[in-house]
Amino acid sequence: MHRLILAILCASFLPSAIAQTGVLISTAPPTSESLRIVQTLQLPSAVQGNFDHFGIDLKRNRLFATPEAFKAVLVFDLSTGKMVHQIDGIARPHAVFYRPDLDQIYVSDGGDGSLKIYDGETYRLIDHIALLKDADSIGYDISRKYLYIDNGGGDVGQPYSMLSVVDTTEHKKIADVKIDGDTLEAMALDNYRPRIYVNDKAKNQVVVVNRLTNTVVATWPLTMGKVNVAMALDEQRQRLFVGCRSGQIVVLDTNTGKELQALPISKGVDDLIFDPATRRLYAAGDGAVDVLDQTDLDHYVVRGSVPSGAKGKTARLVPELNRLFVAVPGEAGKNARIIIFEPVNTQPAKSVVVEPKAQVDSPISEKIVLDTLSTHPFLRKLGLHVIPPDQQNMVLVANGNATRIGIRTSEGDFAAVKDGKTYCAKIDDGAFYNIKMQMFDAQGHRIGILVMEIPYTSAVDVADAIHKAESIREEVEHRIPSLEALFHHA
């Protein structure tokens, strides 16, 4: 009888709870394995205390670990599982980034407040960029090769923190963005539009920074979770995942800043990862990794919680190796260790096609596109296709994501604009309008194709999306005197 009453109560209250929290989540069968241990790297007994963020070097198959109190970065050869080096002289290592084209290692040092740069082969210190104390989390701009570093705040007695911008090619700090709040945590970068999302733990909010102007453009308060420290981004679907130590992943729409739902996880999260290829979330908390699969735009399946070890909350997914690394501090009778998991039972990953690129040099085109993205922050993507002088094929000459520049225009793009009308398709998996149109210069001469994406939240229907897109095209046209002008250099 008691069980019957309990069942009736659950049936009565559960729908109400779901409606209030907006949770669109289900649980996978208990036999559905999500992570499998394949190797454990044992660390020397001298390595004590907590770890911070991993770094990875796929060029030499190296893993970088950051035991903070050990004052060094540990380097592992993943082909042998052996520790091959330790980079000493780092007061408090927090985050590591490896840039393969320059063969350089960048380490944020919270102890002396700096970014240290090392030679990737010899580990020799080659440069030192002064920041403020507590230099911590980092984010990398793949287009401009800039590194963003949290620093300052409470450790230097200030009620605000700095988001410093470092040119990793020139080894120069080029800007500081002042953010209200004495503790900043993880960040995520939108590659196709000039935004950074930063966890402002002191204010329990997400701060949005325009990367082109280095200004704060929005703050999004969090009400569905507390102590926001971890972050991941699904850029294709414009979903920002914020890991809160109170035991939630708060999901926000990056088009509006609106909180959509809170996904329950273990308390004490420190690292949060989203793999766009398999649409899987990994939340590393205090001793376990929670795994969730995204089944569509706003629905998730819990794949379970996989034990790691006491205070094992630092994690790094390397999709190229299909491995998840989790650092576990030493405890009574056990040395610190790094557990290597293999993700299993994932959704099928889409194959990545490496597209050939033409050599393109059109900084004027790129400036026009970036300025337009900055002026119209609702745009998800914007790209300009033309035939460069002395070339025969139409290619992408400007895009918010500069790594795409030089890719040939697809047959689908040509077909979409063949009739001269503006093409507009609704894409539900991402909730946006995919728009393609013929492009003209200021004189009305056809020069190529303009493509863009407008989210559902910024247009009421297809007609409205087309109207907005054509208005933006007109703005861009006025800045292009001629095709040849796009390739002039001052």
Automatic annotation (TrEMBL):
InterPro entries: Haem_d1_sf, Host-pathogen_enzymatic-act, WD40/YVTN_repeat-like_dom_sf. The keyword Signal applies. Gene3D superfamilies: YVTN repeat-like/Quinoprotein amine dehydrogenase (2.130.10.10). GO terms for molecular function: DNA binding. Keywords: DNA-binding, Signal. Residues 1-19 form the signal peptide. SUPFAM superfamilies: C-terminal (heme d1) domain of cytochrome cd1-nitrite reductase. The keyword Signal applies. This is DNA-binding beta-propeller fold protein YncE. It comes from Edaphobacter modestus.
